[in-house]
Design goal:
The complex is a heterodimer of chains A (368) and B (174). Chain A contains 15 helices and 8 strands. By secondary structure, chain A is an alpha+beta fold. In chain A, the strands form 3 sheets. In chain A, strands 1-2-3 form a 3-stranded antiparallel β-sheet. A 3-stranded antiparallel β-sheet of chain A has the order 6-7-8. Chain A has a two-stranded antiparallel sheet with strand order 4-5. In chain A, strand 2 and strand 3 form a beta hairpin. Chain A is globular, with a radius of gyration of 21 Å. Chain A starts with 6 loop residues before the first strand and ends with a helix. By secondary structure, chain B is an alpha/beta fold. Chain B has a single domain, classed as 2-Layer Sandwich (Beta Polymerase, domain 2), CATH 3.30.460.80. Chain B has 3 helices and 9 strands. Chain B has a 5-stranded mixed β-sheet. Chain B has a two-stranded parallel sheet with strand order 6-7. The interface between A and B is large, with 44 and 35 residues.
């Protein structure tokens, strides 16, 4: 009989499937993962420290660099904390415009997620399809903000500017086209035997553990917990919109993947309603006056929103000066990643790629 | 009845003061000795989601802030403990929420607050050996610190720029 002994193996920090710079130190027994340790911080830029020396408005572009796949939601999460702090209300048309771009941002994120997940699983077609459609949404964003990734669009007091000419028609055409594209992905992937073999029954996380670990977003909803901040602790105008929370009870990676596919469809539904409202409502998209030297009152605020990856929160302490005294970022990627060791324990090393892909992290968001 | 009243009724003389955040969330400042008891009580009464742990340096003292959410009651509550800056120690709540693990490590890493009974309190974002705690208000920003690869392949923090692979001065401070 052959004797085996445990050994450690290093994955990353530069590895195709780590989506950035993350290092795993795995303790292996043959092909089986016994224990996972993660070494973070390769992309730590000290954003929380930078915030203390910037003005409230100057920090908005930095939030784009957090989770650089869905900049719009980052902008909004920070903006909302500032608005809560100072008691600013934004015109309703502005709020609908924010909801529209955030939901399109969620679709962008989930498309990139789908593409890269299957690329990690050695299927190179989905990423082509996803990037093709993601490009169309980014074009819209570009017409709004002038940028494709780092938008700096949603700001305290409103948004950067009103919609350009022809935006409504272009968006409507896109919203009409996208459902068939998402059906196309689903047709290719959801019932695919290989996909099922790779994803079903691995990366289990039961609802109790998921809650205790502080896992949020599609990860939590894939564990059967029907929780969405848009529904349960509504912000912006989400309480006026009709949508449902997508959940699956299987608790495995396949469930988490399908949740995201369903969410894309729900986001399209929300985006349509928001677009109707923008067309219907008259008036400005921003508060008429926002002071150039902005000094909110003393105090603190904590706002959390449903970012594509989970719960994104900003805690801001103000000392009454023009710089925030303290900004603390609760990033969904960081908080979801902590559950990974439990999810991959006892799996084969090839499953690590699948389970890690399903957590859907962005290293800019983990390391900040 | 509000959550603050529940805590006040359950524990005597634990709540030092109650306050409301600018966004309307109810908060309470509690004595740090009873933090774990209060957290355990809140967990039992439905606050099963620890949203965030943040540390704040107020120069004369430090604070650790816990934002909690209840999935069943759909309520927020904020807990705060005040700690001595010369001896920044507070009990770990990892026994209540496992998700607190990394958040406490991060607070330790960036603010130098030690969490007693934490299973594995190490730096998480910065490498071991980093000088100072960046989010403290008296952190010395004038020291340039570099991470180089040590003899055994591990990360080593140094202030000596001459050991860098890229030898030229990276930037001029003045």
């Amino acid at each position: 009989m052959t004797e085996t002994e445990e050994f450690t193996i290093n994955v990353g920090p530069v590895h195709p499937s780590t989506h950035g710079v993350l290092r795993f130190v795995l303790r292996m027994d043959g092909e089986t993962i016994k224990d996972t340790e993660m070494v973070l911080g390769q992309l730590h830029r000290g954003l929380e420290k930078i915030a203390e020396s910037r003005s409230y408005l100057q920090f908005v572009p930095y939030t784009d660099r957090l989770d650089y796949i869905s900049g719009m939601t980052n902008n909004y999460a920070y903006t909302k904390a500032v608005e809560d702090l100072a008691g600013i209300t934004v015109p309703r048309r502005g709020e609908y415009l924010r909801v529209l771009v955030m939901e399109l941002g969620r679709i962008v994120n989930h498309m990139l997620f789908t593409g890269t997940l299957f690329l990690d699983l050695a299927a190179s077609t989905p990423i082509m399809y996803c990037f093709r459609d993601r490009h169309n949404i980014l074009e819209l964003f570009e017409s709004l903000s002038g940028a494709r990734i780092t938008f700096n669009y949603i700001r305290p007091g409103g948004v950067r500017g009103d919609i350009p000419e022809g935006f409504i028609d272009k968006t409507r055409a896109l919203l009409k086209e996208l459902p068939s594209r998402i059906d196309e992905y689903a047709e290719l992937l959801n019932d695919n035997e290989i996909v099922k073999m790779r994803l079903k029954g691995i990366g289990m996380l039961n609802p109790k553990d998921a809650i205790n670990y502080g896992v949020t977003g599609p990860m939590l909803r894939g564990s059967g917990v029907s929780y969405d901040i848009r529904k349960d602790d509504p912000y912006s105008v989400y309480d006026e919109l009709d949508f449902k929370v997508c959940t699956r009870n299987e608790c495995d990676t396949y469930a988490r993947y399908v949740v995201r596919m369903d969410e894309m469809r729900e986001s399209l539904h929300i985006a349509e309603q928001a677009l109707d409202a923008i067309e219907r409502l008259q008036g400005p998209v921003s508060t008429p006056y926002f002071p150039r030297i902005f000094k909110p009152v003393r105090g603190e605020s904590y706002s959390r929103i449903e970012a594509p990856k989970g719960e994104l929160g900003f805690y801001i302490v103000s000392d009454g000066s023009e710089h925030p005294y303290r900004v603390k970022i609760r990033s969904p990627s960081f908080c979801n990643l902590i559950a990974l060791p439990q999810m991959v324990k006892g799996l084969k090393i090839s499953d690590l790629v699948a389970v890690f892909g399903i957590v859907d992290i962005c290293l800019g968001d983990v390391d900040r | 009845m509000s959550t603050t009243d529940d805590v006040k009724n359950r524990f005597e003389e634990v709540v030092v003061e109650t306050y409301t955040q600018n966004d309307g969330k109810e908060g309470m400042l509690i004595k740090k000795e009873s933090l774990v008891d209060v957290c355990g009580f809140l967990y039992e009464s439905g606050f099963d989601h620890l949203s965030m742990i943040s540390g704040v340096d107020y120069v004369e003292w430090m604070e650790v802030v816990y934002h909690l959410w209840s999935y069943t009651r759909k309520e927020n509550v904020v807990l705060k403990v005040k700690i001595d800056r010369s001896m920044p120690v507070v009990n770990s709540v990892t026994s209540v929420w496992r998700g607190a693990d990394w958040m406490e490590r991060e607070t330790y890493d960036l603010l130098g607050i030690t969490f007693d009974n934490h299973p594995d309190l190490r730096r998480i974002l910065l490498p071991e050996g980093w000088i100072g705690y960046p989010l403290r208000k008296d952190y010395d920003l004038t020291i340039d610190q570099y991470v180089i690869i040590g003899e055994d392949g591990s990360d080593v923090v140094t202030t000596d720029a001459s050991k860098l692979l890229r030898k030229e001065v990276l930037h001029d401070r003045n």
